[in-house]
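Thread: "does anyone have the structure for this chain?"

Original post by V.I.:
We have the sequence but no experimental structure in hand. Need at least a predicted one for the grant figures.
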Amino acid sequence: MKIAILEICASTHYTLTNALIKTYSTDPNNQITVYTSAFIAKVIKDGGISEQTSLVVFDPHTKAEDFLNALANTPFDRLHICTIADKFKAFSHFKPRVHTVFFHVHDVDMWFQNNWNNALKNAVYNIMHYPDKVREVARMGREVLVRNPARMTILNNLLRENLYFVVLSHRQKEYLSRFVAAHKVIVFPTLINESADNTVAQNSKTDEKTRICIPGMVTDTRRDYTGLFKILENILPQIKGKLVFDFLGFVEKRELHLLQKLQNLERMGLDVLYSADFVDAVTFDASLDKADILLNNQKVNVSHTGKYGLTKESGLLFNIVRGAKPAIFPTAYAVDAEFEGVLMYYDSDKTLTTLLLGLANRSISIEPYKAKAAALALNYTPKNLYKRLVNSSIV
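Reply from O.Q.:
Generated one for you, C-alpha cells below.
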C-alpha cells in the first residue's frame, strides 16, 4: 500500500506519527510518506525510521494551502490526518485523492458537540476554573465564530470520503459511536512499545529509591501540579531520600511559579528532576525506562461535558505501554479494562498522600504491577497493532 501520514500542526504529536510509521513498517510492501514539520521530522529520524519511509517537510514560511494541495494531488491508498489544530482555513479546502481517509479525533466534543449552547457552557466552566478570565472569554469568541464553523466544513468534506475515525481508547470509541457508525471507528494508541523484548529486564531493576515519573508538560492548566507540590511539601520528611520525582516535560513558560516551587522542593532536599526546555524523544525514553512507576495528576473534567477517558484521552495512559510501567491514576479517569490491573488509584489528596507514603516505606509493593505492565506492553508492539489498522472490515 501507499500510505500518507499528515501532521503539520501539533509538535507534541510526534509520538502518534512515530507509532503509525513503525506499525505500517512491519509490512515491507508498504510505502510510507510522512508530510510533517521540520521539528517532527528530526524527532522521528532521531528515533529511527524504516527505509520504506520518506519525509516531506512543511516550510512554515509558505502557505499551508499550497502544501496540502501538493499532497491532495498525489494519489495514495490511505491518508492519516493526525491533527488539524489551528490550520482550519487550509484544511477546509483540502480534498485529497486517496482511497481511504483516517481522521484522528483527539477530542470528540470539539467535533460533534460544538453547538452554541455547549460553547457557552464550556466558556462558563473555563471562566470558573481557570485563572485567565479574559483569555477564556476571547477563546470562546474564537471557537464559536471562527473555529466551529470551520470544523463543520472540514467534517462535512471528510464525510464525503471513504472515512474512518481513529480514537485512542475503546471508551472513546463507545462515546464517538453516539455520532457515527461504530464500525467506522478504530482504536489506535498515540504511543507504542518498541522494546517489548526488554521490558521484563527493565522492570526487574531494583534501587533503594523508588523513582516516580510524571510525564508531560508541567502546567496547572491540565494537571494539578500546585496540589501535588503541596502534598510533597507536607510529607517531605517521610519521603526524603526514599522517593525520586522525575517531572518528564518542560515547565510551561507562563507558569514559572511552578518552576520556583520545584526549585524550592529541591532546596529542601527532595530528589527532583525537571527541565525548563523541551525534552527530546531519546532523553524521554531513557528517563521513562528508569522509572519504577508513573503518576498521572490529571484534571479529569475539562469542560461541562468533556472528560478524560471518555470524550478525550491523555497520552500519559500510553506511556504505560511505551515504558511497560505501572501507574497511579485518578479514580475518576475511566480507562479500558485491560489497563486496570496495572493501575493504583487515588480519589483525593489524602489517598494520594497515602500511596506516596506507602511507596516510600515499601509497605506497597510495585512488583506485581510491574509484571502486569510488562505483559500489557506486548499487546502494543507495532506487529500486534498492525491488525488494528489493516483488517478485513476496513475497505
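V.I.: this helps a lot. The longest strand covers residues 243-250.
O.Q.: and Residues 198-204 have pLDDT under 50 and may be disordered.
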